[in-house]
Amino acid sequence: MKWAEISILTTHEAAETVANIFHELGSSGVVIEDPELVNSYLASGVWDYSDIPQESNTEVVTVKAYLPVDHQLDDKLRNFEEEFQQISSRGMDKGKGEMQCREVQEEDWASSWKAFFHPIKVGQYIVIKPSWEEYIATVDDLVIELDPGMAFGTGTHQTTAMCCRALEETVKAGDLIFDVGTGSGILSIAAAKLGAASVQAVDLDHGAVRVAKENVVINQVEDIVQVGQGDLLTGVTGQADIVIANIIADVVIKLLVDIPKRLKDEGIFIASGIITERLSDVAAAMLEHNLIVEKVIEEGGWVAIIARKGGR
Questions:
Q1: Binding residue per annotation — 273?
Q2: pLDDT, tens digit (0-9, with 9 covering 90-100), for 206-254
Q3: How are strands ordered across the β-sheet holding 225-229?
Q4: Mutual orientation of helices 73-85 and 12-24 as an angle, nearest 10°?
Q5: Is 170 within any annotated ligand binding site?
Q6: Which SUPFAM superfamilies match (predicted)?
């Protein structure tokens, strides 16, 4: 399958707004290439980036999205350009605004980064192991075998790792979980391995749905995790003990309208994909929807929030 890789040069301030525009156009996964984040990875040694130098220009952020090459692509690109030009009217610096578009084959994109993806322990128990790598597990390890393909979510990004740790703290045996924007299925699989009785995973992107289903089978949790295509919570039924969404702040805020009626009393909402600067916005929106923030996890300029549904 052919994909269009759309990349735009922007600023830290506007990066999340640009990502949200891409999301609204149907790209459920967006890559934000933040040079400050790259430098932090190089310093930590988490990624095997031995041939990549420290970034000197940390002011320019590249936002990329992948859209299918089909009859709707031209209209989506025109809509993106119109929305991008509106960013300045919101009082934000949109930066250079240089945009590039190129076609990539799914197999080329999905394979090019494999040299940098190795087993990594992201929590007290959860270990993410690429399907092509060997790993000797300890007694307490919960190993998730993963092949992300074109989907998003390898466990190496801080937001995914923080969500895994939040699940370790909150999942109880027998829980019903909703995973919104499942990507590779990593968080659904983690919830299943932590003892959840049922997980409903949803993603808008059909490619992510396919990859998530494959990863569910690889990890032998298909009797627990059901993956479907849908927009946010439109693809799930019932009320959950835990809803988790690793998306971006604006989409999390949009999602909050439906969260209270989709959570059981005292249910937990875990939200990430949120840059530190947007924490107050998301926390305020949670309070408006009767969600009490119980814990904030912060790492590398990103946050994850654990909130509980209030009693009123």
A1: no
A2: 778 888 898 999 999 999 999 998 888 888 989 999 999 998 888 899 9
A3: 225-229, 198-203, 176-180, 240-246, 263-275, 302-309, 291-299
A4: 150
A5: no
A6: S-adenosyl-L-methionine-dependent methyltransferases
C-alpha–C-alpha distance, residues 199 and 179, integer Å: 7
Span 83-93, average pLDDT = 81
Q: Is 75 annotated as a binding residue?
A: no
What would the pLDDT profile of 146-198 be if each residue is shown by its tens digit? 865 544 555 567 888 899 999 999 999 999 999 998 888 999 999 999 999 99
Fold classification of 2-112 (topology level): Alpha-Beta Plaits (3.30.70)
In this structure, the dihedral spanned by the alpha carbons of residues 92, 94, 95 and 100, taken in order and rounded to 10 degrees, is 170
CA-nearest of 51, 54, 30 to 40 is 54
Domains in the chain: boundaries:
2-112, 117-309
User: Does residue 46 or residue 238 have the better pLDDT?
Assistant: 238
For residues 312 and 69, give the distance between their C-alpha atoms in angstroms, rounded to a whole number.
47
Q: So what CATH class is 117-309?
A: alpha beta
Q: 250: annotated binding-site residue?
A: no
Tokens 């799914």 map to which residue? 106
Locate 1 and state its tokens: 């399958």
Are 148 and 184 a contacting pair, CB within 8 Å? Answer: yes
